[in-house]
Amino acid sequence: AQLYLFCRFVDDLADGDLPHRKESLKDIRARLDGSSLPAGPEVEAFIKLAIANNIPLIAARELMDGMLKDQQPTAVLNEKELLRYCHAVAGTVGLMMCRVLNCEQARADSFAIDLGIAMQLTNISRDVLEDAKMGRRYIPASWIDLPASTIAEANVTNHQAVAEAVIRLLDLAETYYKSALLGIQLLPFRSRFSITVALRVYREIGRLLERQNLPWWQGRVFVGTQQKILLSLRSLIDLKPLVVPKHKLQLHKHLKGLAGIDSE
User: Fold this and answer.
1) Residues 7-19, mean pLDDT to the nearest whole number
2) 92-151 pLDDT, tens per residue?
3) Distance in angstroms (rounded) separating the CA atoms of residues 123 and 119
4) What's the angle, vertex CA 116, arms to CA 115 and CA 119, rounded to 5?
């Protein structure tokens, strides 16, 4: 809950409409980098949490770098840039979660990063229209080179082209979900069920998009309560022990030098 409070705080700040939010994000980034100037109770509480749980502050700093990147018009160039952004704003959260959950398996970090990346790819798939209206296009130009302003118009002539790009996002997310689902076995047993439910519910957003023929121009889709209950029950099956294979290094080929990656 404490980690979530910090992540929610900086995310709301980054996506909010406060006039000096960029400066506030920079102040938080500086505090995480060792500045003596306080950056608010939420940040100070997180720093205490990080010290107590051995959370690598480099992960939090990279999270802030991702939030700062969102303060300007975004036009992702290629898949590498997309995955590095997903690592910054979500893979880092998975890495920090491993520490909070007292995971003793060092190799769990790689799978936790994969879960964060998968969830962020789902976010991007769900929020194509909303992001475009904010001047953000996370779909790589190498897939579809339309400016955010054009996507925001949701013109029928672009429906199919953007939908095909969303399919690629969801296919990419699925690769990371499959990896993350294996790695959940490396978490302490008491944490596996809740993380598995989170994975399956988020994954369902993408599957719902596909079942509805990818109507990105209609805005967000949501997983209903009944479906969440069914997915939660299904998650019980994932508690069955299994041997976790080595992490696929190919999944992190574009992430070299980032938090939690060099450990591979």
Assistant:
1) 89
2) 999 999 999 999 999 999 999 999 999 999 999 999 999 999 999 999 999 998 999 999
3) 6
4) 85
Separation in Å, CA 243 to CA 82, 109, 113, 182, 246: 31, 17, 19, 9, 10
Mean pLDDT of 48-53: 96
Residues 6+ away with beta carbon under 8 Å from 216? 125, 128, 129, 159, 162, 163, 166, 209
- First CA to last CA distance, the chain: 29
pLDDT in tens, 196-219: 999 999 999 999 999 999 899 998
pTM, rounded to two decimals: 0.95
Number of Cβ within 10 Å of residue 110's Cβ equals 27
**Partners of 127 in the β-ladder:** none
Report the distance separating Cα 44 and Cα 6, nearest Å. Answer: 9
CA distances from 238 to 90, 106, 184, 228 (A): 23, 21, 9, 15
Q: Which 3-state string (H, E, C) describes the chain?
A: CHHHHHHHHHHHHHHCCCCCHHHHHHHHHHHHCCCCCCCCHHHHHHHHHHHHHCCCHHHHHHHHHHHHHCCCCEECCCHHHHHHHHHHHHHHHHHHHHHHCCCCCCCHHHHHHHHHHHHHHHHHHHCHHHHHHCCEECCCCCCCCCCHHHHHCCCHHHHHHHHHHHHHHHHHHHHHHHHHHHHHHHCCHHHHHHHHHHHHHHHHHHHHHHHCCCCHHHCCCCCCHHHHHHHHHHHHHHHCCCCCCCCCHHHHCCCCCCCCCCCC
Distance CA 125, CA 139 (A): 9
